[in-house]
Structures are given as structure tokens and as C-alpha cells.
Design brief:
The protein contains 10 helices and 7 strands. The strands form 2 sheets. It has a 5-stranded mixed β-sheet with strand order 5-4-3-6-7. A two-stranded antiparallel sheet has the order 1-2.
Length: 220
């Protein structure tokens, strides 16, 4: 497997040689949510050509960042998963996502949202200091996407699918970003009907305190 070299003896350039190719970090992002079959990765990244996905997986496997393993019966199929070395990228991916979220703005035409991207967005924007004295759970429904978040005194667990006993159910669309960015207050979101909840409305306010998109720095 040929690796692009930047010709510099530098840790940053070496990192880019390993994960700087297009789509590589998005594959890492999705695998940070959980192991996936090839078809699941393809569904989560619908614009990636199949041959490019194959190449990226081979490159990441050769670099020791991911591994392919066989699931036990009855599935008996292969999945891709991160190695311990690959999981060391977790904080880096979260930091990049946190920085990038400040520059999102409104969705561009043809841009999609996936379950994995929302799961990582919740991890990216979570402020553990705001949850030190809180134990609560949320179910989020964003169109066809359903996932949940459990907060346990400063820690966060995000999972796919519904959570029947969630303390608050939130149904929302694109304006969820405006809510998390502080551009829209919980009361305004509820009044407009762009966000609907089932459960104590005050937990929506807590949600905006727990999951916040920071404003970009403007400098001095």
C-alpha cells in the first residue's frame, strides 16, 4: 500500500500520512460509534465510491488503525473495528468535530445527517462540568434517525435506537443546531413547533446546557 509522503520529519505530517486521505477520518468517526460491516459503512457515507472505501479500509488496516474480524454465529460475517491504536484518535476526532461545529451554519444543499454523525455530535458538544450533579436520559428523534443519550453525573453514553424509559423525548429537525448554538431558546423552539418534547420541559433547557456549540473565537 503506497502512502503519500509530505517529506517532513514531523509528527503532524506523519499523522496526515496515516489519516489525512479523503474520507479516512470519517471512517474513523463512524467506527468510534461502533464496529460496522462494509455495507453499513457504505450506507453511512453514501457519497464515497465503493473502490475508495475499499482503498481507505486497506490503508487504515495496513497502518494498524483498524482490523477486520469475524462475528460469531449466527451472523458469521466480517466487521471492521478500531484497534487500540485507532481508538487513540477519539479525542482528536472529538476536538476536530467541536471546532468544526462552530462553523456549520445552515445545512448545504444535498448534505445529509446520519445516526453516527449525530452520535458523535452529541459527544463533541457535551459539557461534562454542566452534568456533574445530573442523572438523566434523553431520546432524540430527528426524522428517520433515533438515538439516545444517558447522562450519569458527568459522564455520557450515546447509543443507537430508542430508549423507552427516557426522561425526555425530543423530536426536532435542522433547528436542533440553532438550539444547541444558543441562537434559539427552548421556549422559542417549543412555541414555533420546531422542537417537540414528551416529558418535563425543563429538561430541554438542561439539554441545551449539556450539549452546547461554542461560538467561534473572533480574536482580539
Amino acid at each position: 500500500m503506497t502512502t503519500r509522503s509530505y517529506g517532513q520529519y514531523c509528527g503532524f505530517s506523519r499523522a496526515l500520512e496515516l489519516v489525512g486521505e479523503r474520507w479516512a477520518l470519517l471512517i474513523i468517526r463512524d467506527l468510534l460509534v461502533g464496529p460496522k460491516r462494509f455495507t453499513e459503512l457504505r450506507q453511512g457515507l453514501p457519497r464515497i465510491p465503493t473502490n475508495v472505501l475499499t482503498d481507505r479500509l486497506k490503508e487504515l488496516e495496513a497502518a494498524g488503525l483498524i482490523e477486520r474480524r469475524l462475528l460469531p454465529r449466527p451472523e458469521k460475517s466480517f466487521v471492521y473495528d478500531l484497534t487500540p491504536r485507532g481508538r487513540e484518535l477519539d479525542d482528536i476526532v472529538l476536538a476536530l468535530g467541536r471546532w468544526g461545529a462552530q462553523h456549520l451554519g445552515e445545512p448545504r444543499e444535498h448534505e445529509i445527517v446520519t445516526t453516527d454523525s449525530v452520535a458523535m455530535a452529541l459527544r463533541t458538544t457535551f459539557h461534562p462540568q454542566a452534568a456533574q450533579k445530573l442523572r438523566a436520559s434523553y431520546e432524540l428523534r430527528l426524522g428517520d434517525i433515533t438515538l439516545h443519550a444517558k447522562i450519569d453525573y458527568g459522564t455520557l453514553e450515546v447509543g443507537r435506537g430508542p430508549l423507552p424509559d427516557a426522561d425526555l423525548l425530543i423530536e426536532a429537525g435542522p433547528e436542533l443546531r440553532s438550539l444547541m448554538a444558543g441562537e434559539l431558546s427552548p421556549a422559542e423552539a417549543l412555541d414555533k413547533g420546531s422542537v417537540r418534547v414528551k416529558g418535563p420541559e425543563e429538561l430541554l433547557t438542561r439539554f441545551t446546557e449539556l450539549f452546547r456549540i461554542a461560538a467561534p473565537s473572533t480574536g482580539a
